[in-house]
Amino acid sequence: MNMKRDYLYGFIKIVNRVMSTLLFIILAICVYLFISLNILSKNYASIFSYTVFQIGSNSMAPTITTNDLILVKITKNVDVDDVITFEDGNILVTHRVISKTGHGFITKGDANNENDKQISTEQVVGKVIKVLPNMGVWFKVFTTPKIIFLVCFTLFMFSLAFSYTGKKILTKNDDFGIYYSGIEFKKGGKNVK
Question: Could you report the per-residue pLDDT of 158-180, keeping only the tens digit for each?
Answer without folding.
Answer: 777 766 555 555 566 666 565 55
